C-alpha cells in the first residue's frame, strides 16, 4: 500500500528537468542572490557614508539610521550562512549526498512559515496594509493612487500576491524534497539483497552492479587420456 507522500513523488520538475538538476539550479540561483547582497553589505561597511540610508527630517522630523553597523554585520553573517547552506544543497544534489540537502530544505520550510505568518497577519489585521503604505517615502510611484483604493481591495490584492508566492515556494519545496528522496533511494539500492528459499539463502548484488559484472568464463573441458 502506497503512502500519501508517494502520490506526490516525481523525479521531474518544471515539466522539463530532473529534480537533481532543478535543485542544483535553485541552489546556484540562491547563492548568486546572496552573493550580490553580500557585496552590497560589504560595500556599505567599507563606505558607510555613501551607503547608509537616512530618513529625511521633512518626513519624520529627525534623522534616523535605518541600517547601522551592527545590523549590517548581522545581515552579512546571515548572507554568508545562506551561501554556505545553498552551496551544501548544490554539492549534495550533484554528488548525491542526501544529508547535505537537509539544511536547505529546512530553510525553505522556515521561509514558507514566515510568509504564511505574514498572510495570516494581513487577514487578522487588515489595517496594516494602509499603515505600511503610509510609511513609504513620498517619492514612491503611485503612492497616493494606491492609498485611495478601497482597503478591502488592497487586502485582497496583497493576499492574492502572497498566495502566488506561497504556491511557488511550496512547489520548490516539493522539488527539493523529491530530490532528497531520489538521492536517498539511490543510496539504498546499493545495499545487497537477500533472497531466501526453502533450502538456501542467496546473496544478490544490486541490479546495476549485476549488469556491469563481466560474464564468467566457462570451465575447461575434460580431456580424456
From TrEMBL:
Name listed for the protein in its UniProt record: Lysosomal-associated transmembrane protein 4B
Location(s) in or outside the cell: Cell membrane; Cell projection; Endomembrane system; Endosome, Multivesicular body lumen
Family: Belongs to the LAPTM4/LAPTM5 transporter family.
Pfam families from the UniProt entry: Mtp
Bilayer-crossing regions: 28-49, 70-94, 100-125, 152-172
UniProt keywords, alphabetically: Cell membrane, Cell projection, Endosome, Lysosome, Membrane, Transmembrane, Transmembrane helix, Transport, Ubl conjugation
Origin species: Knipowitschia caucasica
Subunit structure: Homooligomer; upon reaching the lysosomes. Interacts with MCOLN1. Interacts with NEDD4; may play a role in the lysosomal sorting of LAPTM4B; enhances HGS association with NEDD4; mediates inhibition of EGFR degradation. Interacts with PIP5K1C; promotes SNX5 association with LAPTM4B; kinase activity of PIP5K1C is required; interaction is regulated by phosphatidylinositol 4,5-bisphosphate generated by PIP5K1C. Interacts with HGS; promotes HGS ubiquitination. Interacts with SNX5.
Amino acid at each position: 500500500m502506497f503512502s500519501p507522500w508517494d502520490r506526490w513523488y516525481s523525479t521531474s520538475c518544471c515539466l522539463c528537468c530532473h529534480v537533481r538538476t532543478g535543485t542544483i539550479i535553485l541552489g546556484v540561483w540562491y547563492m548568486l542572490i546572496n552573493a550580490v547582497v553580500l557585496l552590497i553589505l560589504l560595500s556599505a561597511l567599507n563606505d558607510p557614508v555613501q551607503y547608509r540610508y537616512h530618513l529625511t527630517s521633512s518626513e519624520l522630523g529627525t534623522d534616523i539610521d535605518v541600517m547601522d553597523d551592527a545590523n549590517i554585520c548581522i545581515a552579512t553573517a546571515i548572507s554568508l550562512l545562506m551561501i554556505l547552506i545553498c552551496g551544501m544543497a548544490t554539492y549534495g544534489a550533484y554528488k548525491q549526498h542526501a544529508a547535505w540537502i537537509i539544511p536547505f530544505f529546512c530553510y525553505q520550510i522556515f521561509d514558507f512559515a514566515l510568509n504564511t505568518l505574514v498572510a495570516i497577519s494581513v487577514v487578522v489585521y487588515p489595517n496594516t496594509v494602509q499603515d505600511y503604505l503610509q510609511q513609504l517615502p513620498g517619492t514612491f510611484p503611485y503612492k497616493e493612487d494606491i492609498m485611495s483604493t478601497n482597503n478591502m481591495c488592497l487586502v485582497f490584492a496583497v493576499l492574492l500576491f502572497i498566495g502566488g508566492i506561497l504556491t511557488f515556494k511550496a512547489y520548490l519545496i516539493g522539488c527539493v524534497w523529491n530530490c532528497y528522496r531520489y538521492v536517498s533511494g539511490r543510496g539504498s539500492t546499493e545495499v545487497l539483497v537477500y533472497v531466501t528459499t526453502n533450502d538456501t539463502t542467496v546473496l544478490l548484488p544490486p541490479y546495476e552492479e549485476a549488469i556491469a559484472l563481466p560474464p564468467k568464463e566457462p570451465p575447461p573441458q575434460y580431456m580424456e587420456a
